[in-house]
Write a structure and sequence with these properties.
about 100 residues; mainly beta; 6-stranded antiparallel beta barrel; 1 helix; about 10% helix; globular
Length: about 100
């Protein structure tokens, strides 16, 4: 994948995340984040196109609940999530986190 097909810029981060999909509940790290999606470092298995629920731990200690679709999977390393279902409130909260 030589060309970057993202529509939104992403910021390098290191945030705790918990997520749930077809393979169960998992803990992971978000390593890049943008309004369009994020990348999770995790060993948990997913399928491209699968919809997952995730919660990103905010600096305040609260959790930001989101959901998204798996866009790309690197087995044993992690996967990319596309935020295709953001409400106005989720988009606002995500913007605040990205700009933190």
């Amino acid at each position: 994948m030589d060309e970057d097909r993202r529509e939104e810029d992403r910021k390098n981060v290191n945030l705790e995340v918990r997520w749930q999909g077809g393979s169960g509940r998992h803990l992971a790290r978000v390593t890049d984040l943008g309004l369009g999606g994020c990348y999770l470092d995790t060993l948990g298995g997913v399928t491209v196109g699968e919809v997952i629920e995730l919660e990103i731990k905010l600096p305040s200690g609260e959790w930001l609940p989101l959901r998204g679709t798996i866009a790309f999977h690197h087995p044993g390393l992690g996967f990319s999530v596309c935020f295709s279902f953001l409400t106005d409130e989720e988009q606002y909260n995500l913007t605040q986190l990205i700009n933190y």
